[in-house]
Amino acid sequence: MSVHSEIKKITTETLRKMKFDKEKITMLTAYDFTTAKMVDAGGVDSILIGDSAANVMAGHETTLPITLDQMIYHTQCVVRGVERALVVADLPFGTYQSNPEKALESAVRMMKEGGAHAVKIEGGKEIEDSIRKIVNAGIPVCGHLGLTPQSIYQFGTYKVRAKEDAEAEKLISDCKLLEELGCFAVVLEKIPAALAKKASESISIPTIGIGAGPDCDGQVLVYHDMVGMNQGFSPKFLRRYLDLYSEITGAVSQYVKDVKSADFPNDKESY
Ligand code: KIV
Q1: How far apart are CA 106 and CA 123, in angstroms?
Q2: Residue 246: its H or E element
Q3: Main subcellular localization, coarse class (predicted)?
Q4: Per residue in 124-163, pLDDT tens?
Q5: For the whole prediction, is pTM greater than 0.70?
Q6: Of these residues, 6, 189, 247, 269, which one is catalytic?
Q7: End-to-end distance of the chain based on CA atoms, in angstroms?
Q8: Distance (Å, rounded) from C-alpha 35 to C-alpha 29?
């Protein structure tokens, strides 16, 4: 008899079926082993090693500076902590846009060295050839449309995207293209709820929203935002489930007091 516990792993097929069954999909980011273990134990369906690691882990203003080697390192750490969730890793800026061969090389490194189960890349029609090349190699691809942070210098702002008809129409046609190309899901970031609903109804692969309203097939948040570690970031779409910034700074300041006053360590805490 096997000594391994029977954990049913989530696959891209599971997510497809969840959309079909109208069961909402949950996704959160993680960038390290310990967090990934907790997020997986909490029952999330998918863990995203987002290039938001550039912001929350490294303190950069945008997601652009993070490298493929750094994303691979974060992915390796997360994979070691996950038993159940589908692990999706972002390909960072500059590693897939220039040509399909480079895109495939980056995706292969992320799967082989990082141990990801799938990759996520930003954009639609413009990166069609890269998506096709990666999918044809047997690597599951999650698309990302709407506010795509790797294009922030082109957008000039983090405001809601696709409020105008032309951008909204392009988003719907990009969603259909991503489905045709074989993507298994698409993240929709910061777009009007009505447009996200229309997008979700127009394709059979799941949409996973962030700031895209309640009618997406699933939701994703950045872990550090939802547990309240990132005090300065309060967009309308964010729901905070904890106030860890206050909890942690409070605990640290109590530790400082205890050491300074020689209260810690006491006899029971000494050998
Ligand atoms: O990098 C990231 O964390 C993301 C999510 C916000 C979807 O792409």
Answers
A1: 16
A2: helix 244-260
A3: cytoplasm
A4: 999 999 999 999 999 999 999 999 999 999 999 999 999 9
A5: yes
A6: 189
A7: 43
A8: 9
* 113 is annotated as an active-site residue: no
CA distance 58 to 162: 30
Which among 90, 122, 216 is the best mutation to test ligand 1's pocket, defined by most ligand atoms within 8 Å of the CB?
Answer: 90
Contact 212, 196 (CB under 8 A): yes
The per-residue b/e assignment along 195-204, b for 16 or more CB within 10 angstroms, e otherwise, is bbbebbeebe
Which two tokens mark 235?
A: 């967009």
**250: exposed, middle or buried (Cβ count in 10 Å: 0-12, 13-18, 19+):** exposed
Q: How far apart are CA 198 and CA 251, in angstroms?
A: 46
